[in-house]
Design brief:
This protein is an alpha+beta fold. The chain has 2 domains: 63-267, 2-Layer Sandwich (Cytochrome Bc1 Complex, Chain A, domain 1); 288-566, Metalloenzyme, LuxS/M16 peptidase-like (Cytochrome Bc1 Complex, Chain A, domain 1, 2-Layer Sandwich), CATH 3.30.830. Helix content is 38%, strand content 17%. 41% of the residues are buried.
Length: 568
């Protein structure tokens, strides 16, 4: 019920600027012909309201305080339901891992629930489950977050437990041994996961293994040598009150809750931790291909990207608009072209990372082995068009509308609000950041979108990661004989239609091994499933795209028109 009423309030707020519809002219119904039988009633005209501009949706007020031990607290009253959502953020992300122990931050987070001086692992789980709550721990590049959801009446139980796991973990050796076995098994399975292999090669290739953001996951060697003393030292250094921020969203009375916080989290050890500097990444000067040779892969996993911008950068909003145009959803250019029109992939997207330091941007998806070359040509062409020509006004208007209309859904629950309020503190965003977000999205014009696309998307200097079978046959040349026979100025739609009209008995396309096809896009470093380099291949002459398209033909409205025409 709370969720429904809050959503309704948002809808009313968003619709508050709707203009009064113009009067509808009454059209007289013509008299029926005497010989025509019963006349069909004329349809009654219906006025369609003209929507006004999107109005900003405001987060509830945030009450910021600091406990005596230095713990920062952000409190948001949310009285619709008797629940509490807590986000305890510790500046102890993977970027704070010791250089010789990558993964220690995440492993330490996992161990927090495995025993304290007052509770065993089983007792910790029983305590939160008995009151119908949850306690989850997650680690990102910048922070570790403990998330708690519980009924208001059990707030003291939840906060007492949270203080216990934060202040008094014992890191029992028996639980460390279990963790070591679980993580070793997970890593072994991950070596068969194309998504994991893609992310490892991408982050290590983009940042380098010595950069804080380039330490991707842990390793069997680290798991073998990490000790209880390592866990205790990391916890002692990072888990101090001055290194934490607590966000509380829910049905609370501030005065009473302040006293409860002082009795529980107010007992955490004082102190601060040194800020880990996030160095700039040297600019890439040329395109580089990394092929992770995964024998017997039925598909190729593709990721093309580069280091982009910080989450707190002023360019974030206009670049979000540009990214949405390219590949932010199912109505974007990449999805409409590579999935809906060419059937190269079940899904292909563009994504922006969120980091305190320089994040990453990438586009990609998984495609059939045979069409890996076609997909790469298409991806690069879309990147080139986004960075050289401004999006047409109808496409930009549709994109802005989607972003502004979907934002209220991101704050419809107290858990959503807790996440957003926490993110403002993590990334150093201003207090009114989300209150003014819709207005700032609406203000993004074609010039701003194009400028940020040019700044943060670099096709000629991108890192390209492909996970697939190096020897797999990949199709090259025109997509079909009919397309090859078309004149050079044939439109994108004509080329697609020519291939669709060609029967199943058409001559097969020529093929080349995947690693040879990749060489036409740049120099290739082939690595094994263990991440070790197997061989280096120089670049060869660029190949001709199987289908050529002008940039105006690759805008979403044009792609939608082609898709609509193909259905008739």
């Amino acid at each position: 019920m709370r969720r429904l009423s809050f959503a309704l309030a948002l809808v009313l707020a968003a619709c508050g600027s709707t203009q009064t519809p113009a009067p509808v002219a009454v059209v007289p119904t013509p008299a029926p012909d005497a010989d025509a039988g019963a006349a069909t009633p004329a349809p009654v005209p219906v006025a369609v309201p003209t929507p006004g501009p999107a109005r900003d949706v405001h987060l509830p007020p945030v009450r910021a305080t600091t406990l005596g031990n230095g713990l920062a607290v952000q409190l948001v009253e949310y009285h619709t339901l008797p629940v509490l959502h807590l986000r305890l953020v510790v500046r102890a992300g993977s970027s704070t891992d010791p250089a010789n122990l990558p993964g220690l931050a995440s492993l330490t987070g996992d161990m927090l629930r495995e025993g304290t001086t007052t509770r065993s692992s089983a007792q910790i789980a029983e305590t939160i489950e008995f009151v119908g709550g949850s306690l989850d721990v997650s680690t990102s590049a910048d922070v570790t977050v403990l998330s708690v959801a519980v009924l208001r009446d059990h707030a003291e139980t939840a906060l007492t437990l949270l203080a216990d796991v934060l202040a008094r973990p014992t890191f029992p050796q028996v639980e460390i041994n279990k963790l070591r076995r679980r993580e070793t098994d997970r890593l072994q399975q991950s070596r068969n996961d194309p998504s994991w292999l893609t992310r490892r090669a991408f982050y290590e290739g983009l940042y380098g293994t010595t950069h804080p953001y380039g330490r991707f996951d842990t390793s069997p060697a680290v798991l073998a040598r990490v000790t209880r003393a390592d866990f205790m030292a990391f916890h002692r250094a990072r888990y101090v009150a001055g290194n934490m921020v607590l966000t509380v969203v829910g049905d609370v009375q501030p005065a009473a809750f302040d006293a409860l916080l002082s009795r529980t989290l107010g007992t955490l050890r004082r102190g601060t931790s040194p800020v880990v500097p996030i160095a700039d990444v040297p600019a890439r000067t040329a395109r580089q291909i990394v092929l992770v040779d995964r024998p017997e892969s039925a598909q190729s996993a593709i990721r093309i990207g580069n280091v982009s911008l910080r989450r707190g950068d002023p360019d974030w909003v206009p670049f979000t608009v540009a990214n949405q145009v390219l590949g932010g959803g199912v109505s974007s250019r990449l999805f409409m072209d590579l999935r809906e029109l060419r059937s190269l992939s079940y899904g292909v997207y563009a994504r922006m990372g969120e980091n305190v330091g320089a994040s990453q941007w990438f586009a990609g998806g998984q495609v059939r082995n045979a069409v890996t070359g076609d997909a790469l040509h298409a991806l690069f062409r879309h990147m080139e068009c986004l960075t050289t020509e401004a999006a047409p006004d109808p496409e930009l208007a549709m994109t802005r509308s989607y972003l502004t209309d979907s934002f209220p859904l991101s704050i419809e629950t107290p858990g959503n609000v807790a996440d957003l309020v926490s993110s403002m503190r993590i990334f150093g965003l201003p207090a009114d950041y989300y209150d003014t977000l819709r207005a700032r999205v609406t203000a993004v014009d074609a010039a701003a979108s194009l400028a940020t696309a040019r700044r943060y998307i670099q096709p000629d200097r991108a890192l390209v990661v492909v996970v697939g079978t190096a020897s797999a046959p990949v199709q090259v040349g025109p997509p079909c004989a009919a397309a090859g026979a078309l004149p050079a100025d044939a439109t994108f739609a004509q080329q697609l239609q020519a291939c669709q009209a060609q029967g199943p008995g058409a001559a097969p396309r020529a093929t080349q091994p995947l690693e040879e096809v990749l060489r036409t896009f740049g120099p290739v470093r082939v690595v094994g499933l263990d991440g070790r380099t197997q061989r280096e291949l120089t670049a060869t002459s660029p190949s001709t795209p199987p289908i050529h398209a002008r940039c105006e033909e690759l805008a979403t409205p044009a792609l939608q028109a082609v898709a609509h025409a193909g259905q008739h």
